[in-house]
């Protein structure tokens, strides 16, 4: 019986190490994606295995290629405000990601600014 409980505890620890917490990032100010002061961060408790990024109508967030280093993986981006892509920026998201525009905008000034979701330029 002792081996059973030991195995159960080890299995639980192993499963917990593979589970990843997901968060909701809501912009609370305009500015750089990297400025932690621009975001309200909460645990995502709805069971969806994606981060959610929400940009309310009053704010515009500026993203550059460094955003790709954050390892965003699967994300839901909901834009009522705006995202401005810095020059020569390609925002790369996974195949299971989505961007929803709710009267928001995504802006860039040249063809070198792109958003790629799952290998497809959008």
Descriptors for this entry?
single chain, about 120 residues, mainly beta, 5-stranded mixed sheet, 4-stranded parallel sheet, 1 helix, 12 strands, about 40% strand, globular
Descriptive overview:
- The chain is mainly β and 122 residues long.
- It has one helix and twelve strands, in the order αββββββββββββ.
- The strands form three sheets. Strands 3-1-4-6-9 form a five-stranded mixed β-sheet, with no helix packed on it.
- The longest helix is centred in the first third of the chain and has 17 residues, at 2-18.
Low-confidence stretches: 8-18
The helix/strand class is mainly beta
Largest sheet: 5 strands, mixed
Q: What is the mean pLDDT?
A: 83
- Give me the strand/helix succession: HEEEEEEEEEEEE
Dominant shape: globular
Distance between the termini: 57 Å
| Main sheet: strand order | 3-1-4-6-9
DSSP helix fraction: 10-25%
Strand share of the residues?
Answer: 35-45%
The number of strands is: 12
Rounded Rg: 18 Å
| DSSP helical segment count | 1
Q: How is the secondary structure organized here?
A:
Elements: H1 2-18, E1 23-27, E2 31-32, E3 39-43, E4 51-55, E5 60-63, E6 75-79, E7 82-85, E8 90-93, E9 98-101, E10 105-107, E11 114-117, E12 120-121
Parallel strand pairs: 1-4, 2-5, 4-6, 5-7, 6-9, 7-10, 8-11
Antiparallel strand pairs: 1-3, 11-12
Short description:
The chain has 122 residues and is mostly beta strands. 14% of the residues lie in helices and 39% in strands.
